[in-house]
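Sharing a chain and its predicted structure for anyone who wants a worked example. Both blocks are below, sequence first, tokens second.
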Amino acid sequence: MVCASPVRIANSGEVDSEGDLESPGDSNGKRSDFGNVDHGKYDSDCWRLGVLNFHKRWACICNARGGNHMKGGGQNRVVLVTCGSLKESRSIARAVVSSRLAACVNLMLNPVESIYTWKGKLEKAREYLLVMKTTSNRIADLEREVKRIHSYDVPEFIALPIAAGSKDYLGWLQESVKGLR
């Protein structure tokens, strides 16, 4: 996506000649990354833009700053998995990276607190979050491997599309998960 500078982006303000996003703020002078937002209720313009369209705005900002170092995420994915222990999370991370199912796995070393229902009962647990980077054609095998190793009956496995990213990083990601020759 190519945008000329300066560029108008929806209702979110303008990109000035230096490439900075200028947000006019709301009537109370509050500013938001999504421009005019009534902080007392959800603003329909803000939700219409939505998170999935944020990458379009970001690409315009990057281009307005004089470079196109980003590219669309295409078939690249971020996968979220939680584990009951740091040891288990490290084991899963090593297994999926060494088998080229994920290019990289970030381990959150401090646990997150998860609140959920299980078998009709409200539960709370300390879990370790894994953030895996892969491609859509490796998702099924990645999920199978996570389920094989994971101690949970129903492990969290959520795949999100990558809207955009560094060309170099996304190229490395794709190369890293190609099958061994």
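Comments welcome. Confidence is low (pLDDT under 50) at residues 1-52.
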